[in-house]
Amino acid sequence: MVTRTESATPTALYNVTWNFISEDVPICRSATYITIHNDLLPMSPYVDFSAHNGVKSEMLPSRNVDSVQALRSRSTNAVDFQFTNVSVAEAYNEFLVPRVFEPWAELLLDEVNLQRGETVLDVATGPGTVARLAAERVGVQGRVVGTDIAPLMLEVARAKPPLPNAAPIEYLESPAAPLAVPSGTFNTVLCQQGLQFFPERVGALREMRRVLKPNGRVAIAVWAELECNQIFATYCAAVRATAPQLTSLIMAPFSWPSARALKRVAEEAGFRQVQLLTRTLPIVFEEGIDQAIRSLTATPVTVGVAALAPDLQEAFFARVRRELGSLVRDGKVVGETTSNIIIANC
Ligand SMILES: C[S@@+](CC[C@H](N)C(=O)[O-])C[C@H]1O[C@@H](n2cnc3c(N)ncnc32)[C@H](O)[C@@H]1O
Known about the structure:
By secondary structure, the protein is of the alpha/beta class. It has helices at about 60-80, 85-110, 130-140, 150-160, 200-210, 230-240, 245-250, 260-270, 290-295, 300-305, 310-325; strands spanning about 1-5, 10-20, 30-35, 40, 120-125, 145-150, 170-175, 185-190, 210-225, 270-285, 330, 330-345. The chain folds into two domains: about 1-80, no CATH class; about 85-345, Vaccinia Virus protein VP39 (Rossmann fold). The strands form two sheets. Strands 5, 6, 7, 8, 9, 10, 11 and 12 form an eight-stranded mixed β-sheet that branches. Strands 1-2-3-4 form a four-stranded antiparallel β-sheet. Mean pLDDT is about 80; it is low at about 1-75. It binds S-adenosylmethionine. S-adenosylmethionine binds near residues 75, 78, 124, 176 and 193. S-adenosylmethionine binds near residues 153 and 197.
C-alpha cells in the first residue's frame, strides 16, 4: 500500500507498506520516503522530518528539500542505499550477513593475518560484521572500534550479544571522512564493501591512514564487476528488464571501476606496498529461490519495487524467479561472488 501526498512542486512524501507479490513469500515491511523530481529517497534520521510521519503525509517545506539535497551530496550512497531504514538494516543482518558478509569477513581477516592484542578499526562496520570476527581474533587483550554513518545499522550491531573471550567493541557514528577517531591509534584498519559508497574515496583512505599507528596496515574489500557476482547479477537483470529506473541502485555496490583503480586510489592516498588480491567465494541460499527473493528486502531496490504498480511487481518477481532458476542446485541457490581486496602499509 502506498500513501502519497502531491503538490505543484515535484516533491512528494510517501508512506509505504509493502507485501511483495511473490509466490509463497510473505514479505511485509514499511518505510517512509520522499521523491524529489522523481528521485526516490528514503527518509533519513539526519534530516528533521519529525513532523512528518508516514501516516500524516504532509508536504515538505522547501527548506527541508534543500537539506535533503545537501545531505545527498554529503553522503549520497548511504542514503540511496537505504541503510537509514530500519527494515532494510534488519533484513541485511538477517539474510546477507550470515550468507555473504561473514564468510567474506573471515577471508579478509585471514588475508590480513590479525594478531592477538591488536587494536582494530572497522570502517563502515554496518551491523558489526567484520568488527565482531576481528574481536574474536585479537582476543581480550585487543580492542576494536566500528564506525558507520548509519545509526540504524549501529543499533543492530549494538544489540548483538557480547562475545566470550573477545576484545571489547565500541561502535561510533561517523562518516568515513572525517573519521571520528584520533590519529595514530590502530594497528589495523578494515573496510569491507564500504569504499564504493563513500563520496570522498581518496579522502576516506587518507583518513584510514591518519588513524593508523606507524607500520599499521589497511585491508579493504570492494566487489568486482557485477558479472562476477552471479546472484546479484540475476537481481540486476530482473530490475533492468522490469524496473529500469532502479538499475543504478542495484548496481551501486558493483560500480567500482576496476581492481587496478582500487590499487591506484590506495597509492594516491599515500599507502605503500599495496598488494592487490582477487578472491572468489560461493554464496548459498540454502532454502532456495524463495529465500533468495526474501533477501531482496536487504537491498536498496526494495522500496522502489514496493512502489511499482502490481502488474510490474508481478513481472519483476517472475523475472527474478526465472533468472535465479539457472543457479539452483539441489534446491539451493548457489552463486559465485568475487571481490577485489587490497592490503597495504601506511
Ligand atoms: C554493504 S554495507 C557493509 C557493512 C559491513 N562492512 C559488512 O561487511 O557487513 C555498507 C555500509 O557502508 C555504510 N556507509 C555508506 N556510506 C558511508 C559513509 N560515507 N561513511 C561511513 N559509512 C558509510 C553503510 O551505512 C553500510 O553500513
